[in-house]
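ok trying this again, last paste got cut off
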Amino acid sequence: MTVTTPAKILVVDDDDAIRLSLEDLLDRDGYQVRGVASGEQALVQIADERFDLVLLDLRMQGIGGIEVLTALREKALDVAVIVLTAHGSMDTAIDALKQGAHDYLLKPTNTVSLRESVRTALVKREREQRQRALLLQVQQSLTANLEEIRAAVVQSYRAPEPTMTMPTPENPQALMRGGLVVDLAQHIIDLDGHRLELTPTEFDMLAHLAQEAPNVVDSQALVRHVLGYECDRFEASEIVRHHIHRIRHKATACTGRSDLIRTVRGVGYALIG
């Protein structure tokens, strides 16, 4: 019988109450959890021990979260990162996403969003590890027909995806907008028959646009519905703009479509059916 080793998670936060609460929650979910109270301690732990995921506070005394994230990327460590941020550090959170962080969560952290973000980050990391291993195997066993070998190996290791629940009048948890099918119950979205791999924040934003289509939704309303708090128009525009860019990029990479979401300048965004 194969025994699966629990994922190892490092929680980095100088707020003792938040750090201990996160450690307890993740420990009860079956993960191996270690917590540290500073960026300096985080760098020591990262140097001495391998982690699958880091929950990283951005604003700390001394070495902050961005410096820790930069060190992780410079060392090319194979670890997923989810940043924790307060209202005052949204610009920094967006910078962290640009540097490769999987997602950011607003403090105090909602446990449902935390669990989903951790799960998707670990799934994405495992998938990327599998892909790298397969590419290495292909290179080592290179033959006359490289493309056939790569396709066969990738196909043999591809994990089965959840079955999409198609929308029906009796199933309000699923909806269809043109080529977009949103299954709210299973938290999955297909576009033109292809699965979109979205973070929880990206999923909620695209799902809300689908629910409101064809109406235009302004940025403040998106932040209010998806992230659960109020902010001014400029901050909301910056936050939403970055997520919309990532959704568009993933949709284009997956299906070639670049027209999924329409920008209405000065107003907001609308889903194109």
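PB: full thing came through this time. The two ends are 48 Å apart (CA to CA).
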